[in-house]
Design a protein that fits this description.
With 153 residues, the chain is of the alpha+beta class. It has helices at residues 11-24, 62-69, 100-110; strands at 27-34, 38-48, 53-58, 72-76, 83-94, 121-134, 144-147, 150-151. The chain has a six-stranded antiparallel β-barrel with strand order 1-2-3-6-5-4. A hairpin with a 6-residue loop joins strand 4 (72-76) and strand 5.
Length: 153
């Protein structure tokens, strides 16, 4: 077995790598919470528009209900070796009221348009307030790459 050396990245490189992954990956874990029912976590497809994450879920899903009640959410890309965690508040957009540019981009990326479905869907938009990114223990120090909605470095 051959070891893999982890080289510690600076904040600017972590930011660049994070933006690249947000632009290219398909799935993200969404964590919501409800005051009576507690935490809820699901994977959803997502679109990064350069400013925010757009996701879509059934309008009656636990994720949608929770986001309407408590908009603070956490998002995580699925790789546990190259961790990217985002934190922010979700704004809810019924499929009929979602901005056309976002909905069209989502439909292009996934070859599926929730606006054309018979069942009601809800788009969630999360503009991150905090982003953390790290690879291994060597990078845990300095893992915050966005604070208060502003990218660092």
């Amino acid at each position: 077995m051959q070891g893999t050396e982890i080289i510690r990245r600076g904040t600017a490189e972590r930011r660049r790598d994070t933006l690249e992954r947000l632009g290219s990956e398909r799935d993200i874990w969404v964590s919501t919470s409800h005051p009576d029912h507690g935490p809820h976590q699901v994977p959803l497809w997502f679109l990064w528009d350069g400013q925010a994450v757009w996701m879509c879920t059934g309008a009656d899903s636990a994720t949608a209900r929770n986001a309407r009640t408590e908009p603070r959410v956490r998002l995580a890309l699925p790789d546990t070796v190259d961790v990217v965690l985002l934190q922010g508040e979700a704004t809810c957009h019924p499929a009929g009221n979602v901005p056309t540019e976002a909905a069209d981009a989502f439909a292009r990326k996934f070859h599926w348009d929730p606006r054309s479905e018979g069942a009601p869907y809800l788009y969630l938009r999360v503009a991150p307030r905090t982003v953390r990114a790290w690879r291994s223990v060597a990078e845990q120090r300095g893992r915050v790459v966005m604070r208060d909605g502003a990218w660092l470095a």
